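for the record, two folds in this file. i put them one after another cuz i was lazy. first one right below, seq on top, structure tokens after. the second one comes after a little note so u can tell where it starts
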Amino acid sequence: MNRHRAREQAFNIIFEKLFNEDVQTEKLFELGVAEGLFEEDEFSISLAGLTESKSGEIDKLIEENSIGWRLSRLPKVSLAVLRLAVCEMLYIEDVPVSVSINEAVELAKKYGTGEDASFINGVLGTIAKSIEV
């Protein structure tokens, strides 16, 4: 499985987790595999798990850079995409920041709206500048 598809699976898990906070990420992944929705993939599950485990730090960074927006007001698609991308930008060293941003924008276009994609691009661009210092 390529990284694009793996990210999409991780996004789906992160998005589902927004509605089922009490269910473990691994369990959501197992259910998705059992239902034929996901393929076994180490990158997907590790990215989703890392996003969950680092959610406090990730959410703080998103909120600091989403001027005028609280996390509770963000569309769930945007929040899931932002969490995934910020996790990748901060903690996955072998993925260039520009790739994380481009992949996030593509996910937003597929699952959200053009406005979501523009917002995500702007927030991630600001975050990228702050972490490259």
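(here's the note) second protein begins now
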Amino acid sequence: MAKSFFVYIFSSKPQGTLYIGVTSNVVRRIYEHRTGKAEGFTNQHDVKALVYIEPHTSAEAVITREKQLKKWKRSWKINLIERDNPFWDELYDAIT
């Protein structure tokens, strides 16, 4: 079975503070953010709702995509989220 990699976006609230990250173990990483075990920005800004996730087949591809998204204008990121998740639903339960 091929290893999967994910780029994800967390939000503090609909159209609130955004955080973009990558992982190869999405359930573990998102659990860490949601429970405060991942120190740093997400804890400081209460950014705990998974609102966007995108799978990739290689570490190189997911890192390239993360860098691309981090350079985007905020409005583009919001449009990306709302394209797949117009109500800013918490997606954690859907992936576990």
